[in-house]
Amino acid sequence: MGNVYDSGDLVRVSATFTNADDDSADPTAVTFKWQQPDGTETEYVYGEDDELVKDDTGDYHVDLSPTTAGRHYVRFEGTGSVQAAVEGWFAVRGSEF
Q: Is 96 helix (H, G, I), strand (E, B) or coil?
């Protein structure tokens, strides 16, 4: 991650989970967390929240529409059969209009 977007852009963040053999695998549970620059935190759980989408075995994504300028932090967490976490960030430029 680490990309820079303009306010209002659609930002897709994704993660791929793999097992010990490096094959794509689904965790028992997948959670996504988003922290915005103003401290607002959002959490999505796969199977409960439509925003957290499974694309294929082990592949998940969330589409975000951030409007707050600054650095946004994101984290995917897998638990159970595949225990792993993927973290990253992206930045949003404020609008001059």
A: coil
- Tens-digit pLDDT string for the chain (97 aa): 589 999 989 999 999 999 999 999 999 999 999 999 999 999 999 999 999 999 999 999 999 999 999 999 999 999 999 999 999 999 999 877 7
Distance CA(89)–CA(66), nearest Å, equals: 12
DSSP character string of 5-51: EETT--EEEEEE-B-TTS-B---SEEEEEEE-TTS-EEEEETTT-TT
* Residue 22: its H or E element: none
DSSP 95: P
Closest among 84, 91, 92, 93 to 1, alpha carbons compared: 91
**pTM of the predicted model as reported, rounded to 2 decimal places:** 0.92
- The residue extents of the domains of the chain are 4-74
Beta bridge partners of 71: 91
